[in-house]
Design brief:
With about 190 residues, the chain is α+β, with helices and mostly antiparallel strands. The protein is about 25% helix and about 40% strand.
Length: about 190
């Protein structure tokens, strides 16, 4: 990120020297190319980060939208609604700011051990399909995640215990910089 900023600063400082010789159209074209290069480099950094998170099984999917099995969706707070994995353990949480629930954040938190963690990469799109089971005292959950190179992600969490399915849509974030608040697990 510092490299991108330094390149941008140098380019902007050097731009006035070239502006006398360049037409407005050429200036716009040069700025457009610079912006494209910066976006490509940023996307490559994000893709590398997603690859590392998937490979090591250490990630937090901060959800900003939840969807039930009937397709009803709700916009939610990403700091209270998440799916997290830390290679051998995992957490699934639903929460809201409106009231205090069993977990202290107005919802449900389950924490347990991860088993059968596997992932595959789609070469064409660069996305990953991740699957694992989360075994908790409240039951076993089947977690299926699709993670895209730009850090968007969607997790489908199913449970035989309560017969439901919830889809978390949001962004993949490294655990070290995630700002989620974990409630008390069942």
């Amino acid at each position: 990120m510092k490299r991108i900023i330094s390149i941008l600063v140098v380019a902007l400082l050097a731009l006035p020297a070239f502006t006398q010789e360049l037409s407005k159209k050429e200036k716009r074209q040069l700025e457009k190319e610079l912006k494209k290069e910066m976006q490509a480099e940023e996307l490559a950094q994000k893709a590398g980060m997603v690859t590392a998170m998937v490979t090591y099984g250490r990630f937090v999917l901060e959800a900003n939208t939840l969807r039930d099995k009937r397709g009803n969706s709700a916009i939610v707070s990403s700091d209270l609604n998440f799916v997290a994995a830390d290679s051998t353990t995992g957490v699934i949480q639903i929460g809201q700011n409106a009231y205090v629930g069993r977990n202290g954040v107005g919802g449900i938190t389950v924490e347990g051990s991860i088993s059968d963690y596997s992932f595959t990469m789609h070469e064409k799109s660069g996305s990953y399909n991740i699957s694992y089971y989360l075994r908790t005292p409240a039951g076993t959950y089947d977690v299926r995640i699709v993670a895209y190179p730009d850090s968007r992600a969607e997790a489908t969490v199913s449970s035989a215990t309560w017969g439901g399915r919830i889809v978390y849509s949001g962004y993949f974030v490294p655990p070290g910089i995630s700002k989620v608040y974990k409630g008390m697990a069942l």
